[in-house]
User: Which sequence fits this backbone?
């Protein structure tokens, strides 16, 4: 059950009061982070992009309820002040504190709430399950479940917590991830491992098409378990990030199903990623999967418009259930293998596979050796209701 | 009321029987066309890309009910056969006949239906309103209204008809446009004028994010009114294409509102177009507009993730009603001007402007002199219902 608090040297706590939450995570070590590519960037992101160049952190403070975006110079000062407040709690200097925010856009921070919450919880920083749970719940906004993941290796552990839900509003829809390891890794190696790990996980989750204003992923290495093999660490980090990303996709707003789209046979990994993202972003694919319809036409037409060169008449499209336990090929090399006229049994079998909570789509574009996987969720009336009728 | 049949030398007819429709449009002249950029391309598109290089047409045959996509070699032969059938009706050779199809994907054409319908209507080719109406209705699929436009100039006319609806399934969702002029224009000049006209019209309509497998726009110049000024012609052609494109956006599946997004102040027209398309594609923007919520945060966050460099703190975002009769500035240069705390009156006024059938969004990204406009529609529960629950 323990995740980040299974990593040596990590102490957490948190509080959630109405829409305002605060988490403190104390962990001293080398550190790296990646941030949103949105042009509209939150104040804490602006601050952290600069401060993380040093590659060290003693802890992180995260608030929910206010994203501190579109708040100008005052927003930057407020983010700095949050670092000062947490530095006092961690017994360090503000330049060694990470800060992240999630919540509504365009409102100034209420620092008195942050100060008050911090003063009340700072004595609770603990290395146990309950502490970790508090931190996870403190940063939730539209999330319906807390999210965490762990990869245990012989001589080190990587674990993380995150918040974010599959199809979400920018004003509440940030993906924040905090990953920890007790392996000893240089800041440069942390950054080197984090970039591909994030590209293959959080960047492959479709959150309304793209990055929010506050998205960030921090990784801190406490080093308490000593040196480890770099490749083994990088693989464990990617595993944790992918697990967190899938949990975000599964927790989509109004979602009834998690969708996994794997594209194989591409000329480059980037090509495969572009096709996978295009398919999983398509409202027609999302609604077809909601309707449990093995609509190969929508799948291949979405792949076809991704801007990647391949021959649709050479492609293969399949549908599977969770873990690819069963698979039905819908179309292969220009031949349709599941339709209501010629292949009604295959169509019925494919429909049945789509009845569960996870639907897996495989598309082999048959022009190379690279692959990529994207995760998302279906599009339901509930999503429209959440984002249209009850918008604030 | 007359549109394409107000152009000298254009004769039309059509028939719609259940889901199968056929239109014939006879018009002898120079011709040009642009086609879908999807990798999955319909057989008639493959054929026409090659044949249109000659730059002449004597007429066009269009069927609805079957898109002739994913049909391999037989599909190409069927498209060729359609040209032969129409050539006999037009009294010309098959190489001077344009062909287009719309309907379901992955089914072979029923040529006997085409032959039968053609033989019954070919005697009805006429230069009048009723004939034009028949042609328009013959090519409709999910369209709820027929679509046509006209631009009259002193010494020539440009007019067109089209089918397509704003958020539509690739298997029924093609945009087909047939535009005519009685000006005398070389095939090269037709092509030169058509490319920017299509880029600023049909390519700025968001049809689930991108081009379908059958999309095409043909233009034919009968030349019966003699030579005209090229620039005057190009402007008239663009006007007709934009009018048709807006009608497609307004006829979106399940749509309750048409949305126009104009981006100004960009470094290039392409930059402006990318930002406008990104905003109008955003499910969060679509649902906010459905909910009549002047959500500047969603608008500016969508613009911010378009991949175009600009400073969100210098941008201005406004909401208007149809024709920009009234406007409310939501945010200007980092300052929020419509919210429920500080500016509730402006917020209420903006909300009111969004009550109509057309919502106009202006975003000035304040870094250059170029602009672009995109059209789309809101995202409603009805859309999910059409594409999810009743998918075929």
Assistant:
């Amino acid at each position: 059950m323990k995740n980040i608090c299974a990593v040596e040297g990590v102490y957490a706590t948190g509080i959630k009061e109405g829409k305002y939450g605060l988490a403190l995570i104390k962990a001293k070590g080398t550190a790296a982070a990646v941030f949103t590519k949105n042009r509209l960037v939150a104040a804490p992101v602006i601050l952290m992009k600069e401060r993380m160049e040093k590659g060290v952190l003693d802890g992180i403070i995260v608030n929910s309820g206010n994203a501190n975006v579109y708040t100008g110079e005052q927003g930057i000062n407020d983010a700095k002040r949050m670092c000062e407040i947490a530095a006092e709690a961690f017994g360090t200097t503000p330049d060694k504190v990470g800060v992240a925010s999630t919540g509504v856009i365009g409102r100034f921070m209420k620092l008195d709430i942050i100060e008050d919450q911090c003063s009340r919880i700072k004595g609770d920083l603990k290395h146990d399950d309950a502490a970790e749970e508090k931190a996870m719940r403190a940063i939730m906004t539209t999330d319906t479940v807390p999210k965490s993941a762990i990869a245990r290796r012989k001589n080190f552990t990587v674990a993380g917590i995150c918040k974010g839900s599959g199809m979400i509003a920018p004003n509440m829809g940030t993906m924040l991830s905090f990953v920890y390891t007790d392996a000893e890794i240089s800041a440069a190696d942390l950054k080197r491992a984090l970039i591909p790990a994030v590209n293959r996980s959080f960047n492959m989750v479709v959150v309304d098409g793209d990055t929010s204003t506050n998205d960030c992923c921090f990784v801190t290495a406490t080093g308490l378990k000593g040196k480890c093999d770099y490749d083994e660490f990088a693989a464990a980090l990617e595993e944790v990030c992918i697990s967190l990303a899938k949990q975000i996709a599964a927790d989509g707003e109004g979602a009834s199903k998690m969708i996994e789209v794997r594209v194989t046979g591409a000329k480059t990994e980037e090509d495969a990623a572009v096709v996978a993202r295009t398919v999983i972003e398509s409202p027609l694919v999302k609604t077809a999967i909601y309707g449990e319809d093995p609509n190969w036409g929508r799948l291949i037409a979405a792949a076809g418009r991704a801007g990647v060169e391949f021959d649709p008449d050479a492609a293969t499209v399949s549908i599977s259930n969770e873990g690819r336990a069963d698979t039905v090929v819908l179309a292969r090399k220009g031949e349709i293998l599941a339709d209501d006229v010629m292949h009604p049994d295959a169509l019925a079998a494919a429909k049945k596979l789509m009845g569960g909570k996870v639907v897996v789509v495989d598309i082999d574009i048959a022009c190379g050796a690279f692959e990529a996987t994207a995760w998302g969720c279906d599009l339901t009336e509930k999503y429209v209701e959440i984002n249209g009728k009850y918008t604030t």
